[in-house]
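User: My instructor asked us to take a sequence, write out its structure as tokens, and then describe one feature of it. I'm not sure where to start. Here is the sequence I was given:
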Amino acid sequence: MPDSQVPWPRSDRLAYLLLLDKKRRLLLCGGCCGRWSVPQIRVGASTDFEDAATRFLLEEWHVQNPRFGSVYGTFESRLGETWEFDRATTSRALIIHVSDEQGELFEGSAPSHVRWGVSDLRRRRREISPEGLVSLVTGYVEGWIPDGPISLF
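Assistant: Let's start with the prediction itself. The structure tokens for your sequence are:
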């Protein structure tokens, strides 16, 4: 079957993994065009976001029983709502606490992986995507964001 006839999913579900080490540094992946992001995974339609993140962390970095933060970011778009998305999207940004050793393993797994503290995140916030993650992380670390869901967009 030619690619043009393969139907696209009607919706996309993504989890952004905001991995914070004990020194409250966010683990970032370097990408193209001078941008930084956090690890992200696709989540199945019937899969819980935290379950998908737990499975991914275990398989990729051997992180067992991750400790999730009390705050998480949400984003939803509808089909045709913005030029960025050609289908509906539901995303969660999950704050996950990791040890300094796990952060070191992550950072050492690729030359483009780094850990930045709040001051670096603020100074370089325009280089980090998706937008809204820096405010979510700094608010969580500094304690000025309430527990529960926070809309990112």
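For the description part of your assignment, you could build on this observation: The chain is about 25% helix and 30% strand. Try explaining in your own words what that tells you about the chain.
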